[in-house]
Amino acid sequence: xxxxxxxxxGLVQPGGxxxxxxxxxxxxxxxYVMSWYRQAPGKERELVAAISTGGITNYADSVKGRFTISRxxxxxxxxxxxxxxxxxxxxxxxxxxxxxxxxHYWGQGTQVTVSS
Length: 116
Prior knowledge:
Blueprint: E1 3-7, E2 10-12, E3 18-25, E4 33-39, E5 46-51, E6 57-59, E7 67-72, E8 77-82, E9 91-99, E10 103-106, E11 110-114
């Protein structure tokens, strides 16, 4: 049974930091591109960051220099370190696993709220 379980969300003040984690099971984690997406109320879901099977990363322009994605294939976990958080980072953050064009798995999401 495939599972992606996110954790680490919460309420943080502007300028603060959070570290999201996504624990994977039920598939060959090291063979999948792992990504973080987010969806704010009334907005479409957007890509935040992705990491390839070889560790190559890419980021949305809005988070470059503030967020860092990493993966631990041994622990089947992907992380998103979020620094210098802004109110506009408030969203539900989702973990996604992709293999090619046809296999996609999503987590259930974790809420991140940036507010004073």
